[in-house]
Write a structure and sequence with these properties.
With 321 residues, this protein is an alpha/beta fold. The chain contains 11 helices and 12 strands. The strands form 2 sheets. A 6-stranded parallel beta sheet has the order 2-1-3-4-5-6, with helices on both faces. A 6-stranded parallel beta sheet has the order 9-8-7-10-11-12, sandwiched between helices. Helix 1 links the parallel strand 1 and strand 2. Helix 2 runs antiparallel to helix 3 and helix 3 runs parallel beside helix 4.
């Protein structure tokens, strides 16, 4: 096993439980892993973010100095996912502390949202989920992954829904979900949606006029667990994917849906450039006007996405000479 007996330092966002899925996969393949969040996750830090850039920076420095102080052993691999607030100073100190370790960075954000270009030289290998960034900055392109839960999805024989959407409120998602709801009503399609927004943030958006009272029927202040989402996937023919309008890379949702053997309806036009693109399985929609051919919901033609299983994804990012 390529990870057997390897010691791994892993820093990544606390995002759903993807960090745990990666950590567990590393450990199940023989690695020992020390995980840290990519930023402090304390009430003090959250308050400092709102009050002062200086206080925020001081708290970040204290957090990453603590990581350095906790290092009591040599690591074989340092994995970084995103690392939005990680400083060049920290990376330089970490390099000096771990001279034998392979440094690997994976970005599931675009450079436009998280400019990491000045940190690339600290790493032995850098990957991005953004094909445009990969070409522009000569970075290794690697889409995201799907986990075992989606690979082994047991579909219901009779589907309750034609289309399901689950996701956080951001950018123009609400408008597109509203358009899809109207389109579904006009075309006799059963559409289940769940747009999540924290109660306090929802109140702020209402007061600011970003969300109208008539929009509240589309919004939920209760988040769904992975098991809730999987149950919806079992009961639908297709899943709607609405990527952030400032992102080019394929979302995690894309890989999970296709890995599940479901059909995908997506706003991300870049998927046409992928080797697994098949218009029988993947329907591209415009963010302004939605059109879906009725034949799209017919029998699924399953492609091979095994290279995007989490195990294979980790092999790709770990294969550093």
């Amino acid at each position: 096993m390529y990870l057997k007996n390897k010691k791994v330092l892993f820093i990544a966002p606390h995002f759903y439980d993807y960090h745990l899925s990666i950590k567990n996969e590393l450990e199940s393949n023989g690695a020992s892993v020390d995980y840290y969040e990519e930023r402090p996750n304390t009430i003090k830090y959250k308050i400092y973010k709102k009050l002062s850039k200086k206080l925020k920076s001081m708290e970040e420095k204290k957090y990453f100095d603590n990581i350095l102080n906790n290092i009591k052993t040599e690591y074989d691999i340092f994995y970084l996912i995103r690392g939005e607030v990680i400083s060049k100073s920290f990376l330089e100190k970490l390099k000096n502390r771990l001279p034998k370790a392979k440094f690997v960075m994976y970005q599931w954000d675009s450079v436009q949202n998280n400019n990491y270009i000045d940190k690339i030289h600290f790493f032995d290998k850098v990957f991005t989920f953004d094909m445009i960034d990969a070409k522009k900055y000569k970075i290794n392109y690697l889409p995201l992954f799907y986990t075992k839960e989606y690979e082994n999805l047991q579909h219901n024989k009779i589907k309750q829904y034609d289309i399901v959407f689950v996701g956080y409120y951001h950018s123009d998602r609400l408008n597109i979900v509203k358009k899809m709801a109207n389109y579904s009503n006009d075309n006799n399609l059963k559409f289940k949606y769940h747009i999540y927004l924290d109660k306090l943030v929802l109140l702020k958006f209402i007061l600011q006029g970003n969300i109208l009272f008539s929009d509240l029927k589309y919004i939920s202040t209760k988040s769904l667990s992975k098991n809730n989402i999987i149950d919806l996937y079992k009961d639908t023919k297709a899943v709607l994917d609405i990527q952030h309008n400032m992102q080019n890379g394929l979302t995690m949702r894309t890989m999970e849906v296709l890995g599940s053997g479901l059909k995908l309806i997506t706003t991300n036009q870049n998927i046409k450039n992928e080797d697994f693109y098949d218009e029988n399985n993947i329907c591209l929609i415009d963010r302004v006007e939605i059109v879906i051919k009725k034949a799209f919901f017919n029998k699924l033609i399953i492609g091979n996405l095994s290279q995007y299983r989490l195990f294979n994804w980790l092999w790709n990012v770990s294969n550093v000479s």
